[in-house]
Amino acid sequence: MKAVRVDIGEAEILRQSLLSEGALDRTRKLRRNNGFIEIPVSEYYSRDGLEIIEQEKPEFYLPKKTLRDLPDIPEHEKKLLPSGWQILGEVIIVSLNHELEAFSSELSTRPQVVALNKVDLKEARDMLPGLLNFFRTQGIKVFPVSAVTGEGLKELVNYVGKEVERLKKLLGN
After folding, report:
1. Each residue of 107-129: pLDDT tens digit?
2. Which pLDDT band, with edges at 50, 70 and 90, does 18 fall under?
3. In a domain, 153, yes or no
């Protein structure tokens, strides 16, 4: 089964591109292998400039699994979970734009902030460059944080506080 082998820092942007092209094999998981990410693609996919490999021991997603299937989430909280989500290796990327737009079209256009947690772990730190690049290309402010060590939390809280004050002035509240 084919996969594109790419540097961790380039993985998310390429994954998004493959997804939009319809070339991403969504039945298989992305795999980390020696500092690279293997992104599964359809058998007939090819593109100049990309390293396409035969993926050894591919891992498959369980069919129709959603965040609501996770066993440790209380039933009364499952209805609050977002419907838009994607998995990048061991990271779940949650998209709230559809939920925000359903609630209020004006709310969905407001500035967005992402806190990337667990940066105290090597696995998360290794994925950080690609995730930072992805969100920044979307115009989204990103803060790497660790709830365990407190790293980045002061910067996040300060930014959010200033942004709330700025928006209050802008909206006349």
Report:
1. 767 778 888 888 898 888 888 88
2. very high
3. yes
* 65 located within any domain: no
Contact 94, 82 (CB under 8 A): yes
User: What's the predicted TM-score (pTM) here?
Assistant: 0.49
* Domain-embedded: residue 10: yes
What's the full length of the chain, in residues?
173
| H or E element in which residue 32 lies | strand 31-33
Residue 67 sits at the vertex; the CA angle it makes with 65 and 73, to the nearest 5 degrees, is: 125
Domain region containing 15:
2-54
- Residue 133 to residue 137: CA distance in whole angstroms: 6
Decide if 54 contacts 85 (C-beta within 8 A). no
Number of domains in the chain: 2
State how far the Cα of 68 lies from the Cα of 73, in Å rounded to an integer: 8
Q: What is the CATH number of the domain that holds 13?
A: 3.30.70.2580
Give the C-alpha distances (Å, rounded to integers) separating 72 from 78, 87, 89. 10, 18, 21
Would residue 88 count as lying in a domain?
no
Taking the C-alpha atoms of residue 142 and residue 140, their distance in angstroms, rounded to an integer, is: 6
Select from 2, 66, 67 the least CA-distant residue to 28.
Answer: 2
